[in-house]
Amino acid sequence: MRYCLFATAGHVDHGKTSLIKALTGIDTDRLPEEKRRGLSIDLGFAYLDFPDIRVRLEFIDVPGHERFIKNAIAGIVSAKGLLLVVDVTEGVKPQTLEHLRVAKALGIDRGVVALSKVDKVDKELLSERRRELEEILEKEGFNLPIVSVSVLTMEGIEELKDRLKSIIKDFSHDAEDKPLRVFIDSAFVVKGFGTVVRGSCVEGKLKEGEEVSVEPYEIVAKVRKLQNHGSFVKEVVAGERVAVNLPGLDKDKVERGAWLLEPGSYIKSKESIISTELKLKPSARYSVFCGMMETQGRIRKISEGTYLLRIEREIVLKRGDRIVVLNSSGRLLGGAHVLHPYPKIRRKEFIKERLYLLKNSFELYLLEEWSKEGLSAELFRRLTGEGLNPKNLIHIAYKIEGRFFSIKLIERLKGKLKELLQELSPETGLRLSMLQKSLGVSYSVLRYLLRDFENFTIEGNALFKRTEEASNQRAMEELTERLSEDIVEEKRLLSEGVEKIYIQRAVKEGLVHDLGNGLLISDGLLKSFVMRLRELGDEFSLQEAKAKLGLTRKYLIPLLEYLDYMGLTVRRGNRRIWKRSGRGW
Ligand SMILES: Nc1nc2c(ncn2[C@@H]2O[C@H](COP(=O)(O)OP(=O)(O)O)[C@@H](O)[C@H]2O)c(=O)[nH]1
Ligand SMILES: [Mg+2]
224 C-alpha vs ligand 1 centroid, how far in Å? Predict the structure, then answer.
């Protein structure tokens, strides 16, 4: 089963609650006060199943009274579509427009309009109202089908269901793959279970037994039971109305607007960069809805249509989220969308100079904003709810230990490092922490940068310049190491990039022997050959030597001749005899 959330919208008494009841059989006016007054005060919930397309359409019934505009926003904010109800006898009224504008502010553009109570009017008035309605919808920027309905005669109810079905049939369910986000609208205690929070799952999935973090309070709690409309379920997904049993949670800690999130999946902040068509003023104080959470805030203008929003409490947002803006007296102004939920650098010039990146290639913006720390896929996901596509960073960034750094920056740092290293003397060295500080980079980045500088060595936690002597020493060590297992031809070493001068020096110092014909052997290997040959007794034949050392004639003959030359052996025909006076070995 998949789920899709719709909200009702429309002026008070236009027939929203009655229509939901006619569609679903569920009476959403559940508060005693609502029953008494015949008026929806708070949100109500119902659902309609379409078994053939395996979708449950969830309804949030929104109150229409103007005093409850905030409840209306809280209801519409988690919806993907709208069921707008307009009383045919009254036509469009203030809250009809207001709710349409809330939907617009939230980027909701799909849904159906029900022209209600058509049992009360004649055909003429009906078609006049329809025309009026079409005009207004167009003016407000909506293109929605209109269905005439009556809950008394049940006229149009089936048509309305068909319309709804054809809309939700094509809905994408990719929100299911995002990190979990539940907007909480209430919390209560159920005897025997403990605290239950209820809300709309707008993104992701949640399973029984999983841990969630309740934000913005930073409480991690374990899900004991899950329900969808009173039935226990093992898992809930995006689009679903949910009741989540969190026994360990204190119900009084939770208020409407809180979130259930996958722990660690988002960043909370009090500042964000938003984009809007509204003309906002730095002098004014605004009321903003982020999800169902209402808070107060002020803005700083970055440029036309782009503002830095500073709110009074830490909340959870991600890039692409819509927020609703009201003026300080609670009048709806419109919507904005979040470009950056956690701007680390809030300097106006920084943001302004990079507006294009901010709007069009967020990865690149973040690469500059987090230049020294590097951009990780995890950070990207926390800010956007999406995976970082490394393809977008090819040719622009290096990946160092899981984080991306711009090539431009790394090259600049290399230049700076070069300058710093020029002043380094062989004796004193430089603490790595000092270098890190001067460059403003992590240890892993410093190590990455140092790879390009050859004549330095790290000893302990300091960097030393290699003296020429030390460089020679190192080259010699490398050379003898290379020659310690096999006899190697000189031209092969040269082709591997060993400098001739080091070979000559090694031979001169006795570390390496030149057997003639350009065959080189390390002193150690030569000694071990001699020792093994000595095991053959006072004298040995060419064949015995070959079997003992496993060398081909190409190498063996120069080796044995070299022993003769060294005065260790004398050759007699095919045999070699150890000389008594042979040096040492
Ligand atoms: N005649 C008639 N009355 C209706 C119809 N739908 C709703 N009503 C009445 O209109 C009033 C307000 O309806 P309600 O559903 O509470 O409106 P809401 O405030 O938009 O939820 C109630 O008295 C309903 O009985 C309809 O189709 N025909
Ligand atoms: Mg109602």
Answer: 39
